[in-house]
Amino acid sequence: MRGPGLPRGSGPLGRSGAPAVRAARLFRDTRRSRTFPSREAGPEPSPRDQDSGPQGSGCLDVILLRVRLRLHPLRPIRARRRRQPTQDPVLLQVYRLSIGAACGLSWPSDRLVIQVLDDSTDPAIRQLVEVECARWAGKGVRIRYENRSNRSGYKAGAMREGLRKPYARACELVAIFDADFQPDADFLRRAVPPLLRDPGVALVQARWRFVNAGDCILTRIQEMSLNYHFAVEQEAGSACHAFFGFNGTAGVWRAAALADAGGWKERTTVEDMDLAVRASLRGWRFVYAGDLAVRSELPSTFRAYRYQQHRWSCGPANLLRKVLPEILRSDRVSPWKKLHLLYAFFFVRKVVAHLVTFLFYCLVIPACVLVQGDVRLPKYVAVYVPAVITLLNAVCTPRSGHLLVFWILFENVMSLHRSKAVVIGLLEASRGNEWVVTDKLGSGMAAPAVLRNKKKQQQQVRRREVHVLELVMGACLLYCAVYDMVFFGQDHFYLYLILQSAAAFIVGFGYVGASVPAAPS
Question: Mind listing the GO molecular function terms for this protein (predicted)?
């Protein structure tokens, strides 16, 4: 968001001869710090050692924050609560690939520090990450492994503690990646120039590229929704110099903007959006780099996806409640931009969209069917306008166009959970600040040979979870469909209700997403 004049704390990044680049990576959660010494005689110089940075940029201090969100293998349903060491070869390879991608960034090696923040309580994973960090340190990479014994503040607490380290405080730029994100070697060289050209830019946000989008129908549906988010919402916000949110990963922040905005706060579960809002209210601007993609993974199980959507829906609603006074009091942005932030970003996209979808498609249409003699629903409201909006969403992912109908029905089912999360966030109920780490399988990034070996070892009967809310929803919609078909039927609303109830039953019986290994008898 464009502010009047340059904000305070913009830093000396636009000057020639600024300090040298130091890129640090923070994996996540920090209390115990270990520094691995580098050998004097390292390997042959890599491409990042052969020049000093982007052409004509001078030199910069950069800190790359690698946020290690825990990846979990699918545990048997009845045994899921038992704590046991993880020895999943797929996940182990994903961690190695992620750390390797961080260490392989094309940037001068003497100006690159990789900080790995780890909050895992799994001793096998902790040992793996620590050994991997030591291995790269032996190759001459400046890498730090940080681990803290508690998860106070969750991701925000980890980032705050990581940035307090002496070697992090000296850096001018902060790049953030989650554990399942693997940037290309030229990421920094493509992301840093906008920050060099304009000292008023606080953030450069890259888009996500999904390596496991074709795993199952759940990942295909997520790809459609997220492609629209990046191609339309983020692109439009950047092009119009309006506010758009930080996605929490695959972005480069100006350290001065982080400090000017007040740093990381754990008052909500969307600490990334909270930080972006506060920075925009201080007059900082954001840039979206749509041509810069970072490999990532989508959740493959419905349970993990549902927890993620609860956090993504509850957090913004709760943040709106807490940040509203700050938006109204801000004197660095115009009233029109305040209106855009409150109305277009928060009210419409984060609150009304979920509630209207659920109320209209899952309550109003079935209710109108039951009282057709008194209330008639115009077809342009029920069919034509939603169809146009849906087609616009689907244009961003043409390869999944054949899934369009199920995508609509699935989004209507998910609106039940999103609406519930919005209400919890607005009322700040007991689950309003609940943080559940999104489980991911790591299958999209592992080598084919590792995946084949894993599948051979997993000769277990698969068991699907049952979701009661979706089954109740499907039964109610099916009743309305039968009622309409028997007593009315001329408007053909029963066709939609039958399809929508079928989608609810499919989700309710666990046929969306990867299945879970059954517990041994």
Answer: glucomannan 4-beta-mannosyltransferase activity; mannan synthase activity
